[in-house]
Design brief:
- The protein is of the alpha+beta class and 84 residues long.
- The chain has one domain.
- The protein has helices at 8-18, 39-49, 68-79, and strands spanning 22-26, 32-36, 55-59, 62-66.
- Helix 2 (39-49) runs antiparallel to helix 3 (68-79).
Amino acid sequence: MQHRPATYQDAVTKSRYGRKTWIVYRDKLGKQIIGRWSTDHVRSALLAGGTKVRFTLIMHGIPHLMNWRMGLIMLRNARVGVTP
């Protein structure tokens, strides 16, 4: 069973020291979703927010705001084997 961080700060800490990329977004009901980077999470973040809402990608402990276009680019890159 994989431990999921409870807060945004936990995700930043896990990203910094665990060398994994995390994604944080809000679903349609407003609940904050935090999980390790995967194409499923990116796709869910894009569908939950639509084209106008941003989501956060946390790499090496540094949060990056991502938009719809960047999410599509990440999915395209993952299709050919390039992942953060």
